[in-house]
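Why does residue order matter? Because the sequence determines the fold. Keep that principle in mind as you read this record.
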Amino acid sequence: MKKENKTDLRTEKTGYDIYGKMHHEFRPFVMSTNADNFKSKIVNTDKFGFRKTYFKKKLYGLDQIKKVSKKQNIIVGASTAFGMGSPSDKDTIQSYLSKNIPCVSLAARGAPSQQEIAIYLQFKRYFSNIKNIIILSGRNDIGLCAQKNSLFYPDFGGVLGEEERLLNLISQYNFFALEKWKVGVNNLYSIISLMARKSKIVRCILSIFSMMYKTNTHRRIKNRLSLSFNIKLNSYRKIMQNDFETWSMIARKNKINVIYVFQPVLAWSKRKLSPHEKKLFIYEKNRFKKVFMVDICRKDIYESQKKFLKKMCKKYSIKFYDANEWVKKSDTKKDLFIDDCHLTAYGNSFLASKINKLLR
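Structure:
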């Protein structure tokens, strides 16, 4: 009897294996970044961990951008704005937008709304004359609230994919320490973590140990694990409102054109899906059952978040656009998505052509 084919549909012709080698790193005040100075044929980052921009037939990092242009545009967001899955640095949204003025991506994979603005505030000093800021976002804020047992504090927000990000923080801290035993503890923990991922027996032993030994921190956090999706979402929307107000102040004071683009998502898209995308839709929906406490593919979740975002943008004088509407006019003979929220080279090119018309 043949074994069932468990091919990950997301990896087909996307270079996901290369992106998988780019780990996350902790940095003070912005939490998690992409690996810095990462080099490959597909994706390259600068010394800050931001993806390089292809401008005038060369790749430029953030630290070089003032030297090549007196004016700049910025795109902020998470992995979609980063160009996750793009076949090259030339095929990202930022590079497609860098015809006359360079567009720099300050995107960090897995970033929610709060982190997007924190990164901008940290790195705005590297720009001389910002004309436009494109916020390409929306999917991670929903994912953060829907994630099972996510690290979420109603008054502070949360972290998406916290396990990898927090482990990198612990790892870096221990390697900064002078005591060798701390490095040893870190390496031991990494080995145990790796064994637990591969062995049910190890996971069972660790679970028993967890029930036997509980710290005060464990007892204090336990109640937070019972927070529902709606409680998290309502709490996080208050935090997002604060983010919109901050973007509005930045726009007014610096005379910057700030636009919010609700990113296209496979399940929310108004596009007629290609044959491959139909398979992806089913694949992703089944995968999400293991990750989220609610079905984030639901149209009512999309409509509710869209209504909230439009309301915030109107209140704070930020232009709002829904890319899920835009993609209705895309070429259905070509794949636009490579998974739930990341785009093909064609998808990036299509989105960039729409955004370009909105830039000042």
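Residues 229-254 form the longest helix (26 residues).
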